[in-house]
Specification:
Layout: H1 4-21, E1 29-33, H2 39-47, E2 52-55, H3 58-67, E3 75-78, H4 87-93, E4 96-100, H5 103-112, E5 120-126, H6 142-151, E6 155-162, H7 170-190, E7 196-198, H8 205-210, E8 215-218, H9 220-223
Parallel strand pairs: 1-2, 1-8, 2-3, 3-4, 4-5, 5-6, 6-7
The structure holds pyridoxal-5'-phosphate.
Pyridoxal-5'-phosphate binds near residues 33 and 79.
């Protein structure tokens, strides 16, 4: 039996309840993270109403985008680490890139975005936990990169993305999420196009919403274990 529509329904409901419980006023988008899952699983989620999907690996993502071309209103988000030699495929096929953390990548994405396509939506990934294993920019460097991105013709700066610490320490993660929210509010005052704070995964999304996330990224909760 296909459990994806059922899981998705309970996720939508849980998001609503979380918003009510925490009295948050921002609207919250759900990004369905489909890495390692087949195109049929994405199609099931689509039939249940989901439109935004996230992929971590360039070639795998591009293959699924081709396979699901007929679902033309899907918004595809690239959320994995991005090497510059793969940037062209991303610029040509995706609608969003959430993992931009350096000028070189931003510049290439803008140059490689095909003419006639709308600007590529970009989030700057912040390494809020300062863990060496994680990609992302240090907070202090945010405004410099934001300014560079804002000048690039084929990118639209939409906001920030982060991956919280993988920890049982709720207070530590809360501190990180609140710092992200403060950075996001600051960025919003400078750029009208900024409206997205992407944080929270299957293990910590309620906390992220309580701290101001406008987009959460769920894989396991929708598609099951990888
Ligand atoms: C895999 C992944 C997710 C989803 O993770 P789950 O724990 O399965 O919800 C979210 N964001 C990023 C950047 C990921 O790589």
């Amino acid at each position: 039996m296909n459990t994806i529509p059922k899981r998705l329904d309970s996720v939508y409901l849980a998001i609503q309840n979380c918003q009510i419980d925490h009295g948050v006023t921002q609207s919250v988008q759900l990004l369905a993270v489909s890495k390692t899952k087949p195109a049929e699983d994405i199609e099931s989620a689509y039939q249940a109403g989901q439109r935004q999907f996230g992929e971590n690996y360039v070639q795998e993502g591009v293959d699924k985008i081709h396979a699901l071309k007929h679902l033309s209103d899907i918004q595809w988000h690239f959320i994995g680490p991005l090497q510059s030699n793969k940037s062209r495929l991303v610029a040509e096929h995706f609608d969003w890139v959430q993992s931009v953390d350096r000028e070189k990548i931003a510049r290439r994405l803008s140059e490689q975005r095909p003419t006639g396509q709308p600007a590529l939506n970009v989030l700057i990934q912040i390494n809020i936990s300062h863990e060496a294993s994680k990609s992302g920019l240090d907070e202090q460097e945010l405004l410099v990169l934001a300014e560079k991105i804002a000048e690039l013709p084929n990118l639209t700066l939409r906001g920030l993305m982060t991956i919280g610490s993988n920890t049982d320490d709720d207070a530590l993660r809360q501190q990180e999420f609140l710092r992200m929210h403060a950075l996001f509010e600051r960025l919003k005052t400078k750029y009208d196009s900024v409206d997205t704070l992407s944080m929270g995964m299957s293990g910590d999304w309620q906390q992220a919403i309580a701290c101001g996330a406008t987009m959460i990224r769920l894989g396991t909760a929708i598609f099951g274990q990888r």
